[in-house]
Every structure is written in structure tokens, then in C-alpha cells.
Amino acid sequence: MAKVDVIMPQMGESIAEGTVSKWLKKVGDEVKRDEAILEISTDKVDAEIPSPAAGVLAEIKFDEGKTVPVQTVIAVIETEKSAVGGSAPAAAAPSQPAAASPAPASPAPLPTPPAAAPATARTPAAPAPVPVAAHAPAGGDGGVETAEDRLRRKSTPLVRKIAADHNVDISRLPGSGFAGRVTKKDILEYIDQRPAAGVAVTASPASPAPPAPAAVLHPTVEAWPGDRIEPMSKIRRLTADHMIASRRTSAHVNSFFEVDFTRIAGLRQQHRDDYEARGVRLTYLAFIVKVVAECLRRHAVVNASVSGDHVIYRKPINIGIAVALDWGLIVPVLRGADELSVFGIARKMADLADRARAKKLSPDEVQQGTFTITNPGVFGSYVGTPIINQPQVAILGVGTIEKRPKVITLDEGQDVIAIRTMGMLALAYDHRIVDGADADRFMADVKKILETFPDGAL
Q1: In this predicted structure, which of 103-107, 218-222, 279-283, 408-412 has the lowest mean pLDDT?
Q2: How far apart are CA 282 and CA 346, in angstroms?
Q3: In degrees, to the nearest 5, what angle opens at C-alpha 165 toward C-alphas 113 and 189?
């Protein structure tokens, strides 16, 4: 008789926990090695977790909706079917330390779990909930740093970015996340309430902590008789928080350009059969990504990020492509897009989209984007004003591409009305560092190349 633990994996360097989204198997079910047994959600990606061994699912330690620290045992596989007693799944293993079992979800739609018990309430025998050293020297003041201190200081990349932008020392803030970790809600509410923007938290550890935040980022409304109430999925809560944070952070401005895609339509018709024979569908979006990647090399400020009072001009050109899922929105990243052909871009986009819908993306595939493209035009939208995907400074929205009447000038100078394949492109950009002239020069280049796209560039 042998038991194999199923562990909450660490889906990325900065990921400290994951949420059990859905159990695909129940206690007593036979499972094969590498067969998906549950779905989890993290701050970066949704994923299916495979069974580490063949056998029977003997125990489920956390119910759906529970947020669990990484490296925590979440289920047990019994390799001998006869040993399974068929007992009901437990909410948590009795041997688990109290700090490792998340409390019930907070009413506010937050992507992080509610506060764990304070460090002083732990019994001496309780192990640290994450695999970090119990004590480590603190930087510079001769004190010691607990595991909770380290986790709070680590936080998430977004929280650290917001803290750096507003000159806040997050190690001095009381956090409501797991083990006192400062969450995005904590840092945003502190910034909103402090007396003067840009003032660092300089109080010593012995000084009184800042006042507890009272505001709620997402207001509640009254439900009426007959209404259906459903909790937000983790990916929906994250999207909501990210959109609010982006509006707070960036000074959004929009530019709109009408583009004649008749040339691209001809190239698609000419090369469609060849591409399909190679297993790739040649889309308008593949051409747009190719041209945008080329133009980003010449307009570096659009491929940048703001860090405090500095501008980071990104060397790689990694274009995120927004993918609409039945349960939310995700943005897989096409790395090194400027080094790919139209064929390579089309093939890679199709692969990323398919694996996003199948929840097969790795955390690395949704990180380090430098520019984003969203394509609501596939649903018929004429034009839109997308919200910037932080910490980027621009996002391109693609409207529907269709035949429309257009006034054109013939070679002999005569104006005529012709049927052309037209589409709208909308650029949302951060006016903190991208001026209107910068944005419009970038868009003018994109428009020009799309309308005169050379056959040899395929």
C-alpha cells in the first residue's frame, strides 16, 4: 500500500498560493498518471493539475474555492484501490497547521485570501506555511526577519511595482493577505488615504502602523427578488482589480485610425491555400501583429514602462494577444514577435489561443508582455477604447474588418467611390510618457505599412 501526495504547485517564481477552482475527479475515482484531476487558478494563469501517479483518489483536503499556499498537500492518491475507504472529502487535513488553511473568502472580490492569524498567535510547533527559513537576518538594523516578514516583502510583482511607483516601503505596511502579505487592495487603499502622495512609509517597526483602510474598492449593491447572484471567478476578480488599477495608474488617451485592408485581403486570398496546407489559418490579426512589432522597434516609447520617475524602454518586443474565454479574459504573450514571420506569428497565436482555452498555458506564457493587442472586431465591434494592460503604456484595439464604400483617387486624379476592405484601429496610450504626436506617428506607420504590405514580407 502506498500513498502519493498531490501538491499545490508553484506556478511561477512570484506565486505564493493557488485557488482550487474545480475538482475533475471525486474521492474513489481511478486516475491515470498525468491525468488532470483538478483545476487551479493563480494570479497569473488557470491550469489543470495532473495526477503524479496512477491509482485512486483517496482524499481531497481542500474544497473548491479554497486558496492554498504553494507546496501544501491538497489531495492523496492511493496506489492500491482496495485501501480506499470511500470517506467524504475533508475540508483540510487535521495535521495541517492552522496558518496553512485559508479562512473563508472575504465578501470583497479580492484575488488574495483574507488575513491569516497573526504571527504571535502561532504555537511554537507550527511550521511555516511556505518553504522559507524561519528566521533570517534583517537588512541593516541587526534584527531578525521572520518567514512572514519575508513573504510580505516578496508580495507580488504588481504590488511591488505600485509600491515603487509611489515610493512606499511595503515591509512597513500591515497586510491582509496570507501571512500578512500586502495585497494590491492594501497598497491601493493606503495610497488613497495617506496625507500626501509620494511620501514613503518611513516609520520604524516599533512606530504605530498606518490607520486600517476603511474604503472598499468594489461597492456592493442590493439584490432584488428574482435576481441570480453568483460569486466572481478568480480570473474575473483579477480582471476587475487590474482594470481599476490601470485606470488609477495611467493617464489614458485614445487615437483612432481608419485603415484600408484591401491589400492585405488580396494577400490572404492569394496565400490562404498554401498556409492551410501547412496547418495555419492566415488571419488579418497575423498581419497586424507583424506590422506592429516592426513599428515598435522604431517607436520605443510605445514599447516602454513607467517606473516611478523613470522610463524603462524595453529591449524585447513581446506582444500580448487578448483571448476571450467562456470564463473570462487572458492575455498570452507572443515573445520576440519582431523576429517572427507572418506564418510564424499565425501559428504561434493559434497555439497560444488553443492552449489558453484548454487551460494548458504556463505562467511564463502570460508574463513579460511589452505591448498588447485586443481584437473585439471578431465579434462585430466597429471600434473600442481598451484599457492599458499594466505595466505597459499602450494597447491596440482592432475593430471589425469589412467591405465599405470609400472615396479613392485614381492615378489620373479622378475621385471615385469604390468598395474597399476597411477597418478601424484604436490605440489607448499612457499620456504620462507617450505624447499624442508619438502615438500618432506610431499609428501612421502602422497604417502605411498595412496598406502597402509587400508580398515578400510574408
Answers
A1: 103-107
A2: 6
A3: 40
Closest listed residue to residue 299, CA positions, set 457, 452, 399, 449? 449
Q: Cell numbers of 209, please?
A: 502602523
The pair phi, psi for residue 38, each rounded to 5°, is: -155, 165
Handedness of CA 57, 59, 61, 62 (dihedral sign): positive
Question: pLDDT (tens digit, 9 = 90+) per residue, 304-330?
Answer: 999 999 999 999 999 999 998 887 889
* Domains of the chain listed by start with CATH number: 3-100 (2.40.50.100), 103-123+145-218+233-249 (no CATH), 251-457 (3.30.559.10)
Count of beta carbons in the 10 Å neighbourhood of residue 200? 12
Cα separation, 211 vs 180, in Å, equals 15
- Closest alpha carbon to 92 in 121, 50, 59: 59
pLDDT by residue (tens digit) across 221-265?
999 999 999 988 878 888 888 899 899 999 999 999 999 999 999
d(CA 371, CA 442): 13
Longest dimension (CA), the chain: 89
pLDDT band at 119 (very low <50, low <70, confident <90, very high): very low
Whole-angstrom distance, CA of residue 274 vs CA of residue 86: 56
Residues annotated as part of the active site: 431, 435
Q: What CA–CA distance (Å, rounded) separates 405 from 418?
A: 6
